[in-house]
């Protein structure tokens, strides 16, 4: 989350969901053809190749499995499933290899989380078509995606923690928008607040229908705790108490504005989530001082 020494050349902001969410909402269930894929030279997030490959996989596996159940109707369910697993094993290995290639080095937490949701959609579609032979493949993809998502969230937390635990003024001041006298007087929202708010919004939108057994809540709670600590420390760089209060109020208000969607806020239910920010804003951020 904290900018490093090198800047990437990504065509989209990995901290902002934007129109990337459309890939989960589209009703088009047809994978892009190999010809069009080869001709397409534009940049795409990791969720695009992941979705197109798995759309093709689901369609082909479902069609072949349906054919096998009709062709080998005299065989038992277990025999057909075992035979189908043998036929599709190379395809499943190819899919797992693609997923690993897409996520193993990425720090795009929103992209990985979208792949999780796309994988869930594929699982629902396979259940609807009554194709049980791909269950192990779906579970294997989950075992690749969830750990990587947690690693990325841990990386964000550690980057904030390294700055927040540095007691020297210079390290924290380096992240400020202004220098000199302006640093002591400015109460404008910090640039990291915009980035944090967009990331928080994206994760909450992608998790609005998530189950209680997912690891997102713990990772998000830790991230907000680290950001709260950093923001409080930034507020103490010079200035009087009123300036610090205005600084915190403006930053928390910006976060509330960003995560408000269609007139309502997604509430995570923890003390460090939307509800916590709402209380701090309404109390004039006195709790954070």
From TrEMBL:
Domain Vps52 C-terminal: 14-260
Ranges annotated as spanning the membrane: none
GO biological process: endocytic recycling; Golgi to vacuole transport; retrograde transport, endosome to Golgi
UniProt-recorded Gene Ontology molecular function terms: syntaxin binding
Superkingdom assignment: Eukaryota
GO cellular component terms, semicolon-separated: cytosol; GARP complex
A UniProt-annotated Pfam family: Vps52_C
The protein's name in its UniProt record: Putative Vacuolar sorting protein VPS52/suppressor of actin Sac2
């Amino acid at each position: 989350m904290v900018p490093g020494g090198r800047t990437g050349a990504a065509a989209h902001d990995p901290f902002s969901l934007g129109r990337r969410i459309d890939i989960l909402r589209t009703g088009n269930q047809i994978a892009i053809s190999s010809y069009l894929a080869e001709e397409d030279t534009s940049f795409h997030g990791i969720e695009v190749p992941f979705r197109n490959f798995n759309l093709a996989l689901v369609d082909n596996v479902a069609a072949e499995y349906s054919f096998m159940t009709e062709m080998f109707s005299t065989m038992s369910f277990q025999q057909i499933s075992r035979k189908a697993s043998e036929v599709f094993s190379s395809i499943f290995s190819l899919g797992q290899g693609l997923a690993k290639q897409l996520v193993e080095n990425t720090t795009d937490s929103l992209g990985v989380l979208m792949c999780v949701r796309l994988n869930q959609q594929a699982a629902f579609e396979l259940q609807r078509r009554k194709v049980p032979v791909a269950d192990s493949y779906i579970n294997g993809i989950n075992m690749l995606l969830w750990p990587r998502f947690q690693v990325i969230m841990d990386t964000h937390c550690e980057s904030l923690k390294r700055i927040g635990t540095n007691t020297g003024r210079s390290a924290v001041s380096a992240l400020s928008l202004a220098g000199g006298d302006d640093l002591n007087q400015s109460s404008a929202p910090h640039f990291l607040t915009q980035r944090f708010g967009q990331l928080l919004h994206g994760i909450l939108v992608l998790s609005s229908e998530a189950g209680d057994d997912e690891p997102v809540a713990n990772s998000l709670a830790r991230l907000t705790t680290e950001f709260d600590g950093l923001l409080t420390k930034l507020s103490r760089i010079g200035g009087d108490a009123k300036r610090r209060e205005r600084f915190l109020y403006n930053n928390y208000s910006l976060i509330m504005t960003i995560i408000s969607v269609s007139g309502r806020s997604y509430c995570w239910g923890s003390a460090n989530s939307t509800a916590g920010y709402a209380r701090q804003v309404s109390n004039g951020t006195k709790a954070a001082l």
